[in-house]
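Saturday, quiet lab. Running sequence design on the structure tokens for the scaffold JK sent over.
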């Protein structure tokens, strides 16, 4: 048996068992309703694929059987109900729960047909018929009561009098001086017509669902299409004043319960003490996360890596600035020495200066003129190294973020990367190695130390070989 607690808009499973297919009226579902649900007219609904099966519980019903048509797979179960005492339409629904039906070992020739689950409209008509014929000890309507419902006004005696036929015709007078024959008795009047039977309900409309409401102390219904729009007018079912059902407590007493109504309410309240609480679950998860957090103290932090790169870059910038100042000074000195020569090249007194222009000086000037080009190339190279460092930092930050998210989820296994023969294409710029103050890409390091990463080790990064100690 499965047991459920229906509270507000949720269904809580209190007891469960394995569900197998091919069962017929065997698996029973028992519901305990809390709060406002007790006064609702309730329906349990099962849905699988495109099929929907509804089972009417009514107001006092608390149990039903799993529909026999359900097969192996997932099944959604929900409960909805209507407030029979409200002047306006009040419908309560629940979030569905998922049931998993497994395959049984049954193999038969289907000589026992599976009884179909009646549709919702048919079940409602059955409920009405049970009420009218006196199910569970309730008397059906008498002929007099039916006559009143069909417009008769008067007492029971007046109604019985109305059933008598008309008087017969008077007999003819006899002839004088002769004994006349007794007059013929008039014919009995015809019996009054019986009250009309209840009108049969309409056949259900394919592809439609029914909605119920209570209005002016009567239960009414109307049809809805597949998207919930009404497609018919509200139609009378029966008066609620004709319902004199017993309370659930009274039914329990009739079935052997001894005790007060308060004691009975206590007896149906589920004991939740064996179940773990939400606070205890959160405490277990928190302890698990704290116990699985790795020690990252041996590793360099993001801030430290950023500061190291900034410091290195600043040192290079300072060296470049110093070199640039030196070169500019030498260039200016050469310009200052050459300018008088150019301006006085046609005069005789600049002969001494011209004679001082040796091949060594010219070579030095040529070398200085190339310094600016080399300086620009050095700047480009430095910016390229800086970009590589930034990319490496960004990659490290992404991996730390992944590591933190996995720690938060309680997953101890952290995959930094995985690779095969394409490791050099995928990770050459992602993996940098520092050895003796030198920085190597993956390819350049493996070229010098092939035993670090090769096909022989299935491209596993080997940190135990001699170079790394």
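Result came back. Writing it out in full:
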């Amino acid at each position: 048996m499965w047991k459920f607690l229906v509270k507000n808009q949720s269904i809580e499973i209190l007891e469960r068992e394995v569900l197998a297919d091919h069962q017929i009226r065997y698996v029973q579902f028992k519901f305990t309703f809390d709060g406002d649900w007790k006064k609702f007219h309730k329906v349990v609904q099962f849905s699988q694929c495109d099929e929907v099966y509804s089972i009417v519980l009514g107001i006092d019903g608390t149990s039903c059987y799993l529909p026999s048509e359900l097969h192996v797979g997932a099944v959604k179960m929900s409960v909805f109900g209507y407030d029979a005492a409200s002047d306006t339409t009040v419908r309560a629904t629940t979030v569905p729960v998922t049931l998993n039906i497994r395959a049984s070992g049954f193999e038969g020739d289907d000589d026992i047909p599976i009884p179909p689950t009646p549709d919702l409209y048919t079940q409602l008509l059955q409920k009405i018929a049970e009420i009218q014929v006196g199910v569970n000890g309730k008397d059906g309507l008498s002929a007099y009561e039916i006559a009143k419902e069909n417009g008769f006004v008067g007492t029971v005696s007046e109604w019985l009098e109305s059933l008598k036929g008309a008087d017969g015709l008077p007999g003819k007078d006899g002839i004088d001086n002769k004994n006349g024959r007794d007059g013929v008795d008039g014919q009995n009047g015809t019996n009054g017509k019986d009250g009309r039977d209840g009108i049969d309900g309409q056949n259900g409309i394919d592809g439609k669902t029914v909605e119920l409401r209570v209005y002016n102390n009567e239960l009414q219904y109307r049809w809805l299409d597949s998207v919930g729009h009404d497609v018919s007018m509200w139609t009378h079912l029966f008066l609620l004043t004709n319902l004199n059902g017993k309370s659930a407590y009274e039914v329990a007493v009739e079935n052997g319960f001894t005790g007060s109504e308060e004691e009975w309410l206590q007896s149906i309240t589920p004991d939740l003490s064996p179940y773990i609480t939400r606070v205890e679950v959160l405490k277990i998860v928190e302890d698990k996360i704290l116990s699985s957090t790795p020690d990252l103290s041996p590793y360099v932090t993001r801030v430290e890596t950023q500061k190291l790169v900034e410091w290195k870059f600043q040192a290079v910038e300072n060296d470049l600035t110093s070199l640039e100042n030196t070169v500019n000074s030498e260039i200016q000195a050469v310009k200052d020495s050459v300018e008088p020569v150019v301006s006085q090249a046609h005069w005789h007194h600049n002969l001494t200066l011209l004679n001082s222009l040796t091949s060594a000086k010219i070579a030095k000037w040529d070398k200085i003129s190339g310094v600016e080009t080399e300086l620009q190339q050095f700047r480009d190279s430095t910016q390229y190294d800086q970009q590589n460092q930034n990319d490496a930092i960004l990659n490290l930050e992404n991996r730390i973020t992944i590591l933190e998210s996995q720690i938060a989820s309680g997953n101890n296994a952290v995959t930094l990367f995985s690779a095969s023969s394409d490791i050099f294409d995928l990770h050459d710029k992602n993996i940098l190695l520092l050895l003796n103050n030198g920085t190597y890409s993956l390819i350049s390091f493996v070229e010098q130390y092939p035993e670090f990463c090769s096909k022989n080790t299935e491209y596993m990064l080997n940190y135990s070989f001699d170079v790394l100690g």
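Notes for JK: The chain is about 35% helix and 20% strand. The longest strand covers residues 73-83. Ask whether to fix the surface positions before the next round.
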